[in-house]
Design a protein that fits this description.
Blueprint (H helix, E strand, L loop, with lengths): L2 H20 L7 H22 L3 H7 L6 H23 L3 H22 L6 H21 L4 H17 L6 H10 L2 H13 L15 H20 L4 H7 L2 H12 L6 H29 L7
Helix pairs in contact: 1-10, 1-12, 2-4, 2-8, 2-9, 2-10, 4-5, 4-7, 4-8, 5-6, 5-7, 5-12, 5-13, 6-13, 11-13
Length: about 300
């Protein structure tokens, strides 16, 4: 098997299993977990930068003023995404977090058509229509929309689109995005411990090792994913994208969450949308394989 495909599969399997990790920290507040994740992610990525001698990439950011706005936007969106996801998993909404990443590629397609004027094929349009229909029916039939799913999906989609504009190594990019929020995170951690609402006295023994592990589980799948993108066919990387939400959804069901009627409707239509999305990937791949190479 192509090593790049292995990297892609590995990243999505880790992401799919992450709810099991966050469930180990349910006894502390989601905001405290988020602050801890930011601090340790920044530290872990900095160690990687030093080990791989990527310090010039950090200095280069000072001269990339035209990208500062995109970097700031990516920082805000990824922080919000991390926060919404942690809240969903630790507060009993794992199914909504799974649904979010089923919808995500479809939202990215729509945003690409709107922002970058990309043309949509019939299968892509069908995918968008079915995903939107599921959300609309959920609201009109039951008066409910999975707002947490939308929050997770929209923040990650926005982050993905902004990352297309940022020409930085993945470790450098993740470090900057995390480091920008470290001062606020440290202040929140200190305040929480001062008020006895942090981790001290709540976690015990080996559980304290979970705090630095938040940085490792954040950066590791991103590194595998970035490496996999370099050599994975678009059909493979596109299909592998759904390994993560499938695993997350299974974890949610095994954890005892109920698939409510509004959520079932949204899931049903989203799965049809996903089928159209995957068919569109195969169609696109076949079209490229039949395109004659350009003349030198």
């Amino acid at each position: 098997m192509n090593i790049y495909i292995v990297y892609t599969i590995t990243s999505n399997v880790i992401w799919g299993l992450l709810p099991l990790f966050w469930l180990l920290l349910t006894q502390i507040s989601p905001l405290y977990i988020l602050a801890t994740r930011i601090v340790w992610s920044a530290l872990f990525c900095f160690v990687l930068i030093v080990m791989k001698h990527l310090q010039p990439g950090l200095r280069a950011v000072l001269h990339m003023r035209e990208q500062w706005l995109a970097i700031a936007g990516a920082c805000i969106l990824v922080t919000a995404n991390w926060g919404f996801f942690i809240y969903a998993v630790t507060q009993g909404f794992i199914l909504q977090s799974g649904l979010a990443y089923f919808i995500n590629p479809i939202v990215v397609i729509l945003a690409g058509a709107i922002i970058y004027q990309e043309r949509l094929g019939k299968l892509q349009l069908a995918s968008i229509v079915f995903a939107a229909a599921g959300l609309a029916l959920s609201f009109f039939l039951y008066g409910q929309i999975p707002w947490l799913s939308l929050a997770i999906c929209l923040t990650f989609s926005g982050y993905s689109l902004l990352k297309k504009k940022i020409a930085l190594d993945s470790q450098v990019s993740v470090f900057i995005e995390a480091m920008a929020m470290v001062p606020l995170s440290l202040a929140y951690i200190a305040l929480s411990e001062w008020n006895s609402t942090g981790a001290i006295g709540i976690l015990h023994g080996w559980q304290y090792l979970l705090l630095p592990a938040t940085g490792i589980v954040t950066a590791t799948p991103m590194l595998f994913f970035t490496a996999g993108l370099k050599g994975s066919p678009i059909t493979v990387s596109g299909i592998c994208m759904y390994l993560s939400p499938v695993m997350t959804t299974i974890i949610g069901l095994l954890h005892g969450e109920t698939l409510t009627a509004p959520l079932a409707v949204t899931f049903g239509f989203t799965l049809i949308a996903v089928m159209f999305y995957i068919l569109g990937l195969f169609q696109m791949s076949r079209r490229w394989s039949h395109t004659p190479p350009a003349r030198p």
